[in-house]
Amino acid sequence: MEKNGVVVFVTRTGHARQLAELIQKETGFPAAEIGDRVSRKGFFGYMKAGFQAVAKKATPITDPAISLSDKKIVILVQPIWASSVVPPLRTWLQSHANELQGKKTALLVTNKGGPVDKLKIAFETEFWPLAALASISENTDESERLSIVRAFLASL
Ligand SMILES: Cc1cc2nc3c(=O)[nH]c(=O)nc-3n(C[C@H](O)[C@H](O)[C@H](O)COP(=O)(O)O)c2cc1C
């Protein structure tokens, strides 16, 4: 695997952050959070997340402003919201699309165990091919999580 990469993540309740930190530990890549500027708390926040994901919205973010120019691999980590690219990640991808050309993009998702095949199609239709995709259900234990992450990284 290339030595030079970065981890970029979005999270609502912290699971994606844990996975991003695990990748950071395994690779030494810096991890940066895309700040979600839409309130997603409570029932209405949850519903809004689902609607905006399905409607393919690009919603306001706080951009972590990480340097991408010297990076060969970009590992994205997001929760699954209705089988979709989450809106804050979409905003980030759109605003950095030019800089991301020619880099390996991989996607790791946290979910409640639902399928990810639709997300792969959705991502690749809207953006570009993924070098790797893996999913880890929230209730996966630590050793299983580590082995999925290691296999995911080894495939890059
Ligand atoms: C609006 C919304 C839709 C979701 N849809 C799915 C889904 O289709 N399949 C699934 O397995 N989990 C789904 N989830 C659960 C999240 O993917 C899961 O809780 C994830 O681990 C949360 O990550 P986070 O803590 O980083 O926000 C959904 C969550 C939200 C808020």
Report on the structure:
This protein has 156 residues and is of the alpha/beta class. It has one domain (5-154): Rossmann fold. Helices cover 40% and strands 21% of the residues. It has helices at residues 15-27, 42-54, 87-95, 97-100, 117-126, 142-154, and strands at residues 5-9, 31-33, 35-36, 61-62, 73-79, 104-111, 132-137. The strands form two sheets. Strands 2-1-5-6-7 form a five-stranded parallel sheet, with helices on one face. The chain has a two-stranded antiparallel sheet with strand order 3-4. β6, α5 and β7 (132-137) form a beta-alpha-beta unit. It is globular. Bound molecules: flavin mononucleotide (FMN). Flavin mononucleotide (FMN) is lined by residues 11-16, 46, 49-50, 79-83, 110-114, 138.
CATH superfamily membership, which one?
Answer: Flavodoxin domain
Q: pLDDT below 50 for ≥5 consecutive residues: which ranges?
A: none
Rounded to the nearest angstrom, the distance between the terminal CA atoms is: 6 Å
Using the CA coordinates, give the radius of gyration: 14 Å
Determine the strand fraction and express it as a percent band. 15-25%
Number of domains: 1
CATH architecture descriptor name: 3-Layer(aba) Sandwich
Q: Provide the residue-averaged pLDDT.
A: 97
**Main CATH class:** Alpha Beta
Number of helices: 6
Ligand types: flavin mononucleotide
CATH topology: Rossmann fold
Main sheet: strands, sense, barrel: 5 strands, parallel
| H/E element sequence | EHEEHEEHHEHEH
